[in-house]
Amino acid sequence: MDIPDFMKVIIKILITFFCLFLACAVEAQIGVKRKIFYDFRVGVNSSEMDVENGNYGKRPKIGFHIGFLTSYKFYDGFQVQTGGFLTKKGMKRKYDDTVEDAPPSINIRQHNIMYTYDANYFQVPLMLGWESKDFKSWQFNINAGIYGAWGFRGETKGRGSVYTNTGSITGTERVNVKYDTFSKSVLKKFDYGMIGSIGVVYEIYTVNLTYEYGLYNISNGFELYSNSGRKGKVLDNLRNRNLTFSVGFRF
Q1: What is the residue extent of each domain of the chain?
Q2: CATH class of the region 33-250
Q3: What is the SS3 assignment for the chain?
Q4: Which of 74, 108, 139, 223 has the fewest Cβ atoms surrounding its Cβ within 10 A?
Q5: What is the per-residue pLDDT across 225-246, written as a single tens digit (0 to 9) for each?
């Protein structure tokens, strides 16, 4: 039986967690002062996209993430972090406008369509930061840096209607369309940007708030179509934005 690609990635992450746990156990037993820590995290995303000349009609898209971070403390609380995450991003945006053809035509089209972009990424952050020393089992940390991501699966859906008035004939067309998110006509697979995080650690438990600011134009020149293939507005400049809340534990 073939294992889906998504499950293969999850299995690899779990194997990595197990190996890191064994490494921590050995390190603790031989009494070496620890400089390396491993955090397992899971949480929710509130994602959207910056749309050039079109930041209207948007709603947060709720997703999730799961993954791990490795932290290396190199000097007096200062640290470098990297790891790997599976994260679900995207955007919800209502395409609601009126298009009127130039004279002598009097065709008018009114669009009322909700588009949902679902985009699943494997993401790798690289951050520098600082973590306080223990204060009655509590620690505070702040980190910032960059991330790179690769999109591997997703579906973009459009639901709504298009009202047409030609002067003598009027009608409403129902819209129900689907696209592969990472196709040549919707979004590019590669993404990168800036990332910042603040968090607290209590004994082995962690809580983190993170913001991701995409710098790369991920649009492939997506054109909004109706069922009949009629073209709408082109979204030719999109950048990911993502706010995440994580809980987890530290090895």
Answers
A1: 33-250
A2: mainly beta
A3: CCCCHHHHHHHHHHHHHHHHHHHHHHHHHCCCCCCEEEEEEEEEEEEEEEECCCCCCEECEEEEEEEEEEEEEEECCEEEEEEEEEEEEEEEEEEEEEEECCCCCCCEEEEEEEEEEEEEEEEEEEEEEEECCCECCEEEEEEEEEEEEEEEECEEEEEEEEEEECCCCEEEEEEEEEEECCCCCCECCEEEEEEEEEEEEECCEEEEEEEEEECCCCECCEEEECCCCCEEEEECCEEEEEEEEEEEEEC
A4: 74
A5: 545 555 556 788 999 999 999 9
